[in-house]
Amino acid sequence: MLFTTNLTDRIRSPQLRISERARGSGSPSLLLAILLILVVGTTIFVFAARLYPAPAPISRDAVLVDRQYNLTLYIAGVAFLLAQLGLAYTVVRFRDRGQKARFLRGNAGLEILWTSLTLFVFVGLGVLGRKAWADVRFTAPAAGAIQIEGTTSQFVYAFRYPGKDGKFGRIDPSFVSAPTGNPLGIDPKDPTGGDDIVASELIVPVNRPIELLLRSQDVVHNFFVRELRLQQDAMPGMIIPVHFTADHIGQYEIVCTQLCGLGHSNMHSLLRVVSQSEFEMFLNRQAIGP
Amino acid sequence: MLASTIAESVGRSAGANGSAGGYLGPGGGASPNGATPQRAYITGMFLALGGILMFFSALVSAWVVRRGLPNTDWQPIPLPHILWLNTLLLAASGVTLAYSRRCLRTGREADHRYWWGLTTILGMGFLAGQLLAWRQMLSTGLFLATSPGASFFYVFTAAHALHLLGGIAALFALAVRPPRRLTPDTATRVVALYWHFLTALWLLLVAVFLLAG
Amino acid sequence: MALPGMFRRYVFSTDHKIIGLQYLFLSLAAVTIGLLLSLCMRFHLVWPAARLPFVTGGVMTPEQYLALVTMHGTIMVFFVLTTAPQSAFGNYFLPLQIGAMDMAFPRLNMLSFWLTLVAFLVTLSAFLVPGGAPISGWTAYPPLSGMGEITGPGEGAGQSLWIAGILIFCVGSLLGSINFISTTIDLRAPGLTLSRLPLTVWAWFVTAILSLLAFAVLFAGGILLALDRVAGTSFFLPAGLVLSGQLQTHGGGSPLLWQHLFWFFGHPEVYIAILPGMGVVSHILANFSRKPVFGYRAMVFALCAIGFLGFLVWGHHMFVSGMNPYSSLTFSMLTLSIGVPSAVKTFNWLGTLWGGKLQFQTPMLFALGFISFFVTGGLSGIFLAQPALDTSLHATYYVVAHFHIVMGVAAIFGIFAAIYYWFPKMFGRKMNKGLGQLHFWLTFAGVYAIFMPMHFVGLAGGIRRYADSSGASYLVSLQPLHNFMTIAAFITAGGQLLFFYNFFRSMKQGEVASANPWDATSLEWATSSPPPADNFAGQLPSVYRAPYEYSLPTAAQDFLPQHLQSEHDPAQEGRSC
User: Fold this and answer.
1) What angle in degrees, to the nearest 10, is found between the helix axes of C433-459 and C479-509?
2) Strand partners, A250
3) Is residue A12 part of a domain?
């Protein structure tokens, strides 16, 4: 014998070895196929029946985002269906029923085909999705946009309007004092700050472009309105502008999505989209105030 | 000299153990008794250097970003003059180390030990000089948190010095007791790779500080 | 043998097999703790007002919930998904599969394990200090994580211990990577060319390269964060921060810098978590389809491509961070591209099954499950890869669903597949087949039940890391989904008891296994179960063929082990020599 004893089982009869190995029957494949069909079916059903829809979009940019989402959903859905059902079919069809396996090392043509196809589809999706991003992020807000500053802190939102002079007062963190009514730290000596309006909700007129300047006083926060399909982190040390034009009057929730401390889940506010006249009334009311 | 050292080491290990094809060829790397082949220690050291390089690259990128921030409070820091002497000491230690290895290869055992010892002293001199450099910085009022430039200076020099300390420990260890699993040639090559890398890294860091102004 | 000897043999061992088992048991302990933490979280999301016996104060506070979130993520990502697939199975089986006696540097290997264990204990100890564990998530974004207790409970000593634990883990990981790569390059058996390596070896090799480069960067970031916390530096902390009404004295740093450093590590990290599983799946599929892996070279290229591209996509975690929006598009295109090698692997797995002779042993079932989950998780990724869509999905439960399906399910199925497959080799006994199959069905159905609904929570705007739905009013409408997921989670977690029972019982009482119970071709099956201390009883093998020569038409039987010289080996055909 040329080989050491730990190889003795190798010289057992091939028949015995095969039966030891192939102890599984084909039924696991049928059960797996059924489960896969169930998963695919349930998922497609929930999507198709729109059981948990995102709220309707309220801006043109949001509608563009939804179109790109739907396109991606169809493509992903088809891929999901084909892959999972393909797996189900394969495991059932080729379960061990005593056949010999086909010896295949691969197929260069197939490799090239499915690699190119996948590359084309994925990159194509990316290219098509560019516009929805570019429209919001690469372009400045339209002329005449109303500037509003949004300041986040643990765990509240504060929105500042520039007032009649159209200018924001200078902010200096050393002036921040919530108890004495200056939560944002507006420099009391800056005359342009005197008429600034600070509110805890974001009130905007419908169909007017808004430029929201996001700031943070302490940690990283976030501004997210589902209906606008708009989300942006508020980064301390930076002022980050985003812009939108809301085209539906209504009340929409603003939530913070960036973990900011123990009050994270309670940090929320409201976006109120109102008519132009109501917006002016709001500004005047605030200006007249104490 | 470094390039030829590397070329030598690759050529040598390709021939060792009788396996053809060097690193990427068919196996047969392990010695007949299954022990780790000498060239694996060289591979391991190169990999370690790769990791250390990534670490310092991350710090350098942080430095680049921090310097380039708008509204930055970045101010150039005056470099302690002793840094130049330290740099010379470290560069000299590289030369003595390479010469020490040449002595080992040509069988001049006593010379090898002499220049190895000199390398160790020069290395310790570098570290002592770095401590003096820190004292000079502190005496000008530049502490770790005083300014971002100072912060990076301390972080870079401390990180480098700690790595070099490891190198000095290795120099001592090899002088005192030859390792069991590595041949003297491999052991000294591994240490030399590490040492030359840290020397080159130091020169790079000095260039970085110079660029900062 | 006397106690000191046993100590040396089983505790401070330099034997890669013992070290592999040590890592495996460490990861099993970690996954148990991580799972329990997640059950506490899911319980809280349904019954937030319940009084819990182990919670200080009775009712769980938001900060305690966030501490659970942070530690669950940290323990699972580092001590389960980075440890089990690579450090545990890689350590045990890499030397065996390349025909070596041990790793290149056995003592360094032992050091790596002990560093990892110390890291685990240091990280866990964050629960025990005043203030508790940190609340900044496993991502630890400053300034929340960078300023001490003033930003929130747990941000004092808890966060410091967390950073210390992670730094120690980085060192252990780096040393381990050096070992893996050197071993693969320099210790291969004669005849084992790179194109004859099992795909498991390729996967561990690429993963180790990713580890070496990525953990070095995390180490640097962690040092800088620690300095910001304790030394007053301002790497990540900007000027003008006001916390608790007090102006802070830091200046000029950038929180975005941390995000870049962290995600430069963080993205390769998730490929570190999944690549070994992909290798194991390929290996197992070939074995139980009785066919070579379809497109072996394409699979190797795909592994390398995923590894390489994995370093170029980190910005997709930062689309809404305030990063330059033009970079976002670049990161987006690169992220979509990484879907290509991933899809190629999936197609090749299906190609491996196609025309095969499929046998549904438990390892095969888990490998098939891996494919299903990898497809699902991968496809949800193409939504997140587009910044226009990510703007509505970032930090929602959609992301949580995505990464749980790829990491918390697919990668875990890879681990289960590896355990069931290699258990006979490691312990000389087989796991119980009935229990294994039941474990599979329960887990497969269970995790789909947990994580598919989670997508819908996210699409409707359910935000992650929320301790409850007391904030925005629309969150309440998502509660039924949360209830369903929690129930599914508890049932599925209970099902894992089947696995643990099977695992530990079979170690002692399982059916005795032969050297090669699965009729496999790779070198680990060419030695006894378990292998002797030097792996091959003094006779290191040589390799004569590719790793997956199953059902070769000209061969006498349907598998040709790599180490057997001739196709027509007299020993194989039942004739004694």
Assistant:
1) 160
2) A273
3) no
Note whether C254 contacts B52, CB cutoff 8 Å: no
**Domain residue ranges in chain C:** 22-235+251-526
Radius of gyration of chain C (CA): 24
Same domain as A31, residue A166: no
Name the DSSP letter for residue C125. G
**Residues B15-33: tens digit of each pLDDT:** 333 333 445 556 665 666 7
Q: For C390, how many CA atoms within 13 A lie in the half-sphere containing its CB? A: 29
Domain extent at residue A221: 144-288
HSE-up (13 A, CA, CB side) for residue C523: 33
pLDDT, tens digit, 9 for 90 and up, residues B66-121: 988 887 778 888 889 999 999 999 999 999 999 999 999 999 999 999 999 999 99
What pLDDT score was predicted for residue B31? 64
Cβ distance of C212 and B58 shorter than 8 Å: no
- Provide the pLDDT for residue C57: 81
Q: Which of C 205-224 lie inside 8 A of B, CB atoms?
A: 212-213, 215-217, 219-221, 223-224
Which A-chain residues 162-221 have CB contacts (< 8 A) with chain C?
173-174, 176-179, 185, 217-220
Does any CB of chain C come closer than 8 Å to the CB of residue A35? yes
- Beta carbons of B26 and C98 less than 8 Å apart: no
Residues of chain C whose pLDDT is less than 70? 1-4, 568-577
Which of B29, B52, B159 lies at the smallest CB-CB distance from C186?
B29
CB contact under 8 A, B72 and C252: yes
Sign of the four-CA dihedral C190, C193, C198, C199 = positive
Half-sphere exposure of B76 (CA within 13 A, CB side): 9
**Do C48 and C65 touch, CB atoms closer than 8 A?**
no
User: Which residues are bridge partners to A152 per DSSP?
Assistant: A157, A216
What Cα–Cα distance (Å) separates residue A71 from each residue in A64, A65, A78? 11, 10, 11
Compute the distance between CA of residue C298 and CA of residue A111 in angstroms, rounded to an integer: 8
Which residue in B has a C-alpha nearest to residue C216's C-alpha? B55
Superfamily of domain C22-235+251-526: Cytochrome c oxidase-like, subunit I domain (1.20.210.10)
Q: What is the 3-state secondary structure (H, E, C) of C493-531?
A: HHHHHHHHHHHHHHHHHCCECCCCCCCCCCHHHHCCCCC
Any C CB within 8 A of A24 CB: yes
Read off the CATH number of the domain in which A226 is found: 2.60.40.420
ipTM: 0.94
Biggest CA-to-CA distance, chain A: 105
> In this structure, are residues C398 and C459 in contact, taking their beta carbons and an 8 Å threshold?
yes
The alpha-carbon gap from C107 to the nearest alpha carbon of chain B, in Å, equals 12
Answer with the residue of higher pLDDT: A41 or A290.
A41
| Each residue's pLDDT tens digit, A17-69 | 444 444 456 789 999 999 999 999 999 999 999 999 999 999 999 999 999 99
Helices (H) and strands (E) in chain B, counts: 6, 0
Q: Which residue of B has its CA nearest to C238?
A: B72
CB spacing of A90 vs C297 below 8 angstroms: no
Q: What is the pLDDT of residue A7?
A: 44
Domains of chain B: 38-66+80-212 (1.20.120.80)
Asked if residues A24 and A211 have their Cβ atoms less than 8 Å apart, the reply is no
**Chain A contact set for C322 (CB, 8 A):** 232-233, 235, 238, 240
Which chain C residues are closer than 8 Å to A24 by Cβ?
Answer: 359-361, 364
d(CA B39, CA B49): 15
Q: What is the pLDDT of residue B2?
A: 46
Strand partners, A240: A214
**Is the peptide bond prior to C531 cis by the omega test (within 30 degrees of 0)?**
no
